[in-house]
């Protein structure tokens, strides 16, 4: 078969399968997910054998230890993956909920019902765990999914897909509900991105370059976030101890992720005491600080931040610090350099907390808490499929509910329009 | 100024204005809208003078009477436009509503708050009434808007924009909150469609060709519907009188709009009595019927429908009719030829009503009511900005609420992540 025809056939099969799984009873979906969780544990040796091929190839190519770490399916990783599937089975099924219904003057009853989006394409890098996470979330929310993982994880993903396909088959469900995209050329993916008649949503997960390429080529709606330049603003009235523990947690607990802190904004009034304190604590935790000129007047031996530092998502033990003379200046900074991801105020002032929550336009705005809580699980959505910093459809972490949409249902008894 | 710079300046100004109007108190927004409603009435002569230029040019070019009708700002049209603005002022302000809030085990309070989308671009054809409708809906929902109407309505739109700008200025609000796109070349619009850093949503309103061109060129999310191929399925158990009045209303009351009926599906069991009856009634109303081969066995002098008829949005007094042997066949037909717009079952069977509502994937699915009710106003949303048949963000008619999104707000008291 021609590549183009083959891609179209995958998308068409997904569309067809999506109609079937859209109306599957919750119990059947949950049973299939629990079977999958079992099978992942049972097939551990087989999965690890396939994974070894990927890991050895990555080592031969000299890929980074961080990448190889994310690629490797250890016993612990497979167990966690299986537990994740059980968790998804335990989450409430959003499909079919009537979220609101009202009566019109002519007695029409108008309701909005939650339905799956249809077919979702997930394009990601070399993390085989995403294959199982994404498949189970899409399946539970009644969506068909087409998975396109990074080529470094090709054997691992193929082995995982075989396990998944086998479970679907045994459960009497359409295998096309969860498909692995078989081709590894990027150009083939671009073809997939034009099939708007079959695919309802594309979610790219990975580096900014990958995401920009997807947006560039897609005719299908894309939900994404380019990066997470997260801020904490320590207000004049902040409790210093609380501010310190939040800043350290946000920067140090896991620096390589999108909800880690990148820029700290400190109110002038608290800077003389708080700046030396936080710099000293951060240094003990091996964090490199790059600070604005005015900070240097308080702590002279700091490295000076450059204009480009304010745009940086370091994803590393580096923090930029800037003093501001007001909350308004902090908000302007966030507006100019931020990425609509996660921004925090630490304050004990009621009206500043209120105003910050209202005026900062990011998808998650917090008072007195670590940026690291911007995560579907931490916020109580259950497992997450990703984080959106685009305002359309979903803004912030996306759980099962964000993989659905609302259709109108109207109950009449013969009404016609005047 | 270069065209490119000029377009960027418009978009940038809109973004800046959007931050201000996002947090405007409801009363100030309503006052400005009521002033606008007054001014539209007061400036009637001025508006009509500008409109005359457009109408005369359209007549000279020999444009269709339907287009000229939509273009003309009669006294009645201006009064209705002004009343529409008053209605928008009276609608509840969706901005700032906390739609849900829950507590996490660590005492974090997590809420979702309704916020404006930001900047919306509306691209439409030569209906000057859309200029005022769209401006007032976007303004009320706290969004800045860039309006690009058809070139045939250029003078009318400019006059309307002057009235709007004047009201904004007098009310002390940023004039860039509502801007008319000054250029009439389509290529300039394509440049606008790439400015994803400033514009959050594009809504094209018009013919399928316009909409496809916008989707093709836009990097910004687009909400749209290509067409409305609406179906009514008359089930075996339908009350014939009810079915007749719904079908006639759906086809005849206003045939040129997207929620008018295009294809009638009739269950075999009721066809021998219902088909001759409905054909005779439709003929009296000057409707041309194109029917499937099997219909011809019951009413021999019908014109036979061709395969392409099932895809047609006639927007005219033409109806295609097909007999089906089951509800499943009706649903398959809708799936294959429909446009996810509006589909109706007329039935007196409870379980068929239930199953039809569940299995048909369209944005509005109805039982025993006319397709013509798919309209924001008729369904109780207030005025509508458009209808979406894309599942992302909004599916079906879009009112004020669909011009907003939800951001997360998190209230902590020092929580850090373990």
What does this structure look like?
Two copies of one chain form a homodimer. Chain A folds into two domains: 3-224, Aldehyde Dehydrogenase, Chain A, domain 1 (3-Layer(aba) Sandwich); 230-373, Aldehyde Dehydrogenase, Chain A, domain 2 (3-Layer(aba) Sandwich), CATH 3.40.309. Chain A contains 15 helices and 16 strands. Chain A has helices at 3-22, 26-42, 44-60, 65-71, 75-90, 128-140, 154-170, 186-192, 208-217, 240-252, 271-284, 293-296, 327-337, 350-359, 376-379; strands at residues 98-103, 109-116, 119-124, 144-148, 178-180, 201-205, 230-234, 261-267, 288-291, 303-304, 318-324, 342-346, 364-369, 386-388, 396-398, 404-415. In chain A, the strands form four sheets. In chain A, strands 10-9-11-8-7-12-13 form a seven-stranded parallel sheet. In chain A, helix 5 runs parallel beside helix 6 (128-140) and helix 10 runs parallel beside helix 11. Chain A starts with a helix and ends with a strand. The interface between A and B is large, with 69 and 69 residues. Strand 13 (364-369) of chain A pairs parallel with strand 16 of chain B, so a sheet runs across the interface.
